[in-house]
Write a structure and sequence with these properties.
The structure is a single chain. The protein is an alpha+beta fold and 64 residues long. It contains 3 helices and 4 strands; from the N terminus they run E-H-H-E-E-H-E. A hairpin with a 2-residue loop joins strand 2 (31-34) and strand 3 (37-40). The mean pLDDT is 94.
Length: 64
Amino acid sequence: MVIIIDKEKCGGITDCPGEGLCIKLCEQGAIKEVDNEPVLVPENCDDCDLCIQNCPNQAISKAE
């Protein structure tokens, strides 16, 4: 199942209390920074949920 990043809740890397923690935690490279925003690379996501569990803004969730 693919994740969704809510850009409004996220606010971008520079405004993130975790300073892009989702990108730092992802060992698969499924989230990368593009123009100060975290962007999903779905083919790399292995559903580990680390980004969901650790997002300080609760901006990442599972797609339905």
